[in-house]
Amino acid sequence: MADGAADRWIKMGAAVLCTAGLLAAAHWQLPFLLQHWAVFTASLLLAALVLFFIRFERSAISAREVGVIAILAALAAVSRIPFAALPGFQPTTFIAIVSGYVFGGQAGFMVGAVGALGSNFFLGQGPWTPFQMLFWGLAGASAGALGRYFPGMSRAAMAVFNTLWGFLFGWLMNLFFVVFFIKPLNWSSFLLAYGASFPFDCFHAFGNLLLYLLLGCRIIKVLRRFRLKMNYTGG
Predict the structure, then answer these.
(1) Distance from first CA to last CA of the chain, Å, rounded?
(2) What percent of the chain has pLDDT over 70?
(3) Is cis: bond before 184, omega within 30 of 0?
(4) How far apart, in whole angstroms, are the C-alpha atoms of residue 52 and residue 141?
(5) How far is Cα 9 from Cα 2, in angstroms, rounded to an integer?
């Protein structure tokens, strides 16, 4: 009951947040938003992150599950560092996806979000960090939904899913670049920014595909076996 009530409060908070954003857009109108779009977008994003973390904090999760999430998040963070010199190659996306697919959307979100935060202590924190946390978290959360409704996904389908998230993460991160650095903000500058990032998005997508084809099935198998042993209580 307590968890259900917490979920209802989280959903109500998200609804209030979206409603406030729409009302603000209607009140301030487009010229004001274009002038203050960075602050407005960053505020909504940070509020969304807070709601996700509150939901995780109030969920019924065991200490063993927390330990597994922490290990996977550390792996997501550390694996990103050696490949920092390769443009667009982001193992964090792959690890968040396989974690969410096996352990659920909540675990996947936390692995992606904490992995982004942890790796940026080495690669550099900045205004991009909350964006990376949210979008890598959403990669893991979406994989959790996939694992819940389609637990028997084929290898080809999972490869396509990983590839698509390579492009989607780049497109979402472009919002950070556009919001904070593109002045004036118009359709021409918007499309130019997305076009400039396309080669890096292709590298990201190819990296995700390569990692899944080489390691995906093995890692998912190991994680599922570990999940079964973690949930086994004996008799």
Answers:
(1) 28
(2) 71
(3) yes
(4) 11
(5) 11
